[in-house]
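Researcher: Structure for this, please.
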Amino acid sequence: MKIDLTDTTSSKINKALVQGRRAIGTPAVGMVLTLVIVTDEENAYDSLKAANEASREHPSRTLVVIKRAARSPRDRTTSRLDAEVRVGVEAGTGETVVLRLYGEVINHAQSVVLPLLLPDAPVVVWWPVNAPLDPAKDPLGALAQRRVTDTYAAEQPIHELTARAEAYTPGDTDLSWSRITPWRSMLAAALDQVTCKVTSVEVEGEEFNPSCELLAMWLADRLDVPVKRSLSAGPGLTGVRMETTCGPIVLDRADGSLATLSIQGQPDRAVALKRRETSELIAEELRRLDPDDTYASALKYGVDRLGEVSEPPAAADGEKEAADEPKKAAPAKKAAAKKAAAK
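Model: Predicted structure, token format:
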């Protein structure tokens, strides 16, 4: 069921939610949290789709806040709130309210959202794009116990990690961190199988992918060893090599779905490490609402403390060919010189 409200208020939206629940025969509220999505019109559909899929595991009231920029100066001074209320099949297992803010009300989005929060239920705010530099000090972020950003969507992802570290507040988290959960689990399990000491680590992945840096910082922080960051064509993370006193441990994923775990003295094993959808990442973040101390420790380790970044293999091959050119030309020059001397 869908109810459209034009030039409305938070009170009218609440009444529409009650009306919708009664119309579909479920007057009781069975949601466990409120998920506030702050996005733009371009990314609203994909974000809402991911949230609806995650709601199968975490029934929630989803509030989508879309700030619409007015075209003329006159319209910018006129405040208006349009809403789209969805219940039943239209909203997955919870309730959805799409809020479109115009004019001055854009600067007071928290006053619109606050009356729509579920009473006595935790609040999670998610910025799929254009996250504030300090989420905890954002008016909407201040309402939440958990604040989810995604540095991968930033214009300069690696610089964004530094900004996130400087502004970190307990409750902040990052989908780039969620993406490496399977990698962290697999590497920890591999180290549990040996009694060797790790001496160095190399993390390989595509350029400008903050998940690679976060994994490298986590390994450096936990193992207290040098970690080298090398580049590959991707997709995403492609491999981790840990040098130990008993031989190398290698976790290699070249195709983005199936990885190979190699441990010295053991047969190679194929492990599933597929790249996950946004809905799976959001569902993982909603499972825990307490501060993630492991993420905080890895984030504060600092990108600048990682080892020197090596060049991608393709560039290295190109440089090798260029370096070989003078060697190929040297015999030809010697032959020409001998010919000239003979004349």
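Researcher: Any notable elements?
Model: The chain has a mean pLDDT of 84. The two ends are 96 Å apart (CA to CA).
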